[in-house]
Amino acid sequence: MCINHNETTTNPSHFEESEQAAAPATHQDIAWNDYRELIKGMRFFDPHIHMVSRTTDDYQAMHQAGIVALIEPAFWVGQPRTGLSSFKDYYSSLVGWERFRSSQFGIKHYCTMGLNSREANNEQLAEQVMEILPLYIYKEGVVGIGEIGFDDQTAAEEKYYRLQLELAKEARLPVQIHTPHRDKKKGTERSMAIAIEHGIDPSWVIVDHNNEETVKSVLDKGFWAAFTIYPFTKMGNERMVKVVEQYGPERIMINSAADWGISDPLAIPKTAALMKMRGISDEAIKLVTYTNAIEAFGKSGQIDVADFESGFSIDQSEKFYGNSILRGGQQPSPVKESILIR
Amino acid sequence: MSDLVKEKLREIITRHISPSEEAWLLQKAVAPPLELMTAFVSCPRFLPKRIVAPEEADEWTLSTEVPGFSITGWSLVRLARVWLLTQLDPSDKEVYVHHIETLFDTAEMNELVALYSALPLLSYPEQWLFRATDAVRSNMGFVFDAIALHNPYPEKYFSELAWNQLVLKTIFNDKPVYLIEGLENRANEKLALTLSDFAHERWAAGRSVPPGVWKLTSKFMNTTLLGDMQYLFESGRPEDRQAAALVCHEATFPSANYLLAKYSDLEKSVKSGQLTWADLEH
């Protein structure tokens, strides 16, 4: 039988040995307890993470690693939404259930609200979403309009990006810009130029998913430069350390953008540990992993550090809409060291 | 709803806010619907967080215009939100209903509380029946309170089935049943018998029933309920015995009076007016 060579190489069976090199390692072999020691006592703020697609185990690990607050930007959930109701339910979960779930693990939850660029291309639905968006952006704990901007850089994306910039101006809310994966440099420049064209002060705009190619221009223009530590596709944290070494900690912040992809909700504490190992000062680490994000998104008037700075008490027997995070018979806070899972 | 209510609410709000806050609110009240609805959401960003302190005369005016309506214990934001809703133009029914429905669909918990509190003041009251009965079905504590307690809407518009559900759920949730508006007006035989069944289930599980709920049974006294009264009299709980005495005193069913006569101390205090239902309201 004639075998198509391409077919076997692009889609080998599980039993076939791949000729390709093993996937690159995404995590250095540093034991958890070693790096935990390095960041002991530090507090972290993750200004971009999609908890709706993460588990409760993640919340527990994040809390243990020192993450005290986070921002969940409205985003694309991996599958197109087919109607306005899906958007309403999603937005409601960001200010409702997800915020409650987070609080149950000692983490203060904020969010940004927006129509994401990818779904801006479904104009009929986008129109309907824009109608109800004002009813969400003013809710308590909404710290910005986000994440908005470009994906494919289409005309529809530009239209809804501009409309949402106007909304942010009107509501006096910071803007969180998602920069595209493809043709990033051009997309980033275009996003910034349009924001300036709309008369938005760059100090109110957080440009996200930067890399070595975009950071200089973003900082030079006076915007906040956010970096996403995300395996394979965005920044690695060794590269991040170099960026901080080169540009310093002013107006730079890091996040995990952890979502339904292969990502790491502990990206910030791990990067902080690495920065500490490479000799970056505690003060600079604090700026890029905590203070800068609070300053930038705090312009919304919705962040009070007293709510999380010294931690807050957790009562896992509390309920949200009569629903507890605890499933039938579960006891609050199981002992993780025990091998018995009851 | 009369303009007097709107005016009174505005007057109370004005007393609690600064001139610039008032200017913001007044401007939003006459804005196009979407802007007004956005203001409904954004009230906590523009108005102070405080509890309103209505004067007695205010409450009197409100309850004269809309019997059973009260704003005692409300936050200023809740009051301002309810007032904003009364400013929506109701002339086009379809548009008006669509706006209110949109607010329900997008509401977070505090907004839902305001929406349910506003039901007695909204136009087209029958339109909100599904929402109102749904609020009773759900387990949202604050939202449940907003529809069930101190709210005259259910008394006026709920079907008997929905009304009985509301009362039962209030008891089931251990909420003060006497805070339901129209409790006595809407007492009915079905509810009285269901309460008896409910009490039997509780007793079987070794639990008790709040004594105040027996008030709903006196008009419908029969041999089954009389058996319950006997059980209450014989229970060791003084409040249960007092409740049984009050029910038997109010009931026209002859055997109830005979039963009460067996407990002369209780009979004396209930007949002299020394013991009333108010003693069991807590």
Task: Explain what you see.
- Chain A has helices at 5-10, 32-38, 56-64, 84-95, 97-103, 117-120, 123-132, 134-137, 155-171, 184-197, 215-220, 237-247, 267-277, 282-297; strands at 44-46, 67-73, 108-113, 142-149, 175-178, 205-207, 224-228, 252-255.
- Chain A has 342 residues and is an alpha/beta fold.
- Chain A has one domain (32-302): TIM Barrel (Alpha-Beta Barrel), CATH 3.20.20.140.
- In chain A, strands 1-2-3-4-5-6-7-8 form an 8-stranded parallel beta sheet.
- In chain A, strand 4, helix 9 (155-171) and strand 5 (175-178) form a beta-alpha-beta unit.
- The radius of gyration of chain A is 21 Å and the shape is globular.
- Chain B is mainly alpha-helical.
- Chain B has 2 domains: 3-179, no CATH class; 189-280.
- In chain B, 62% of the residues lie in helices and 0% in strands.
- The mean pLDDT of chain B is 94.
Low-confidence stretches of chain A: 1-22
Helix content of chain B: 55-70%
Assign a percent range to the helix content of chain A: 25-40%
Structural class of chain A: alpha/beta
Strand content of chain A: 5-15%
* Main beta sheet of chain A: 8 strands, parallel
Q: Just name the CATH architecture of chain A.
A: Alpha-Beta Barrel
Q: What coarse outline of chain B follows from CA principal-axis ratios? A: elongated
What is the rounded distance between the termini of chain B?
Answer: 32 Å
Question: Could you please say which CATH topology of chain A applies here?
Answer: TIM Barrel
Q: How much of the sequence of chain B is in beta strands?
A: under 5%
Round the mean pLDDT of chain B to the nearest integer and report it: 94
Reading the helices and strands of chain A in chain order gives HHEHEHHEHHHEHEHEHEHEHH
Derived structural class of chain B: mainly alpha
Average pLDDT reading of chain A: 86
Total number of beta strands of chain B: 0
Q: What is the count of distinct domains of chain B?
A: 2
In spatial order, strands of the major sheet of chain A run: 1-2-3-4-5-6-7-8
**Based on CA inertia axes, which overall geometry of chain A fits?**
globular
Rg estimate of chain B, integer Å: 22 Å
InterPro entries (chain B): EboA_dom
Protein name (chain B): EboA domain-containing protein
Organism (chain B): Dyadobacter sandarakinus
Keywords (chain A): Hydrolase
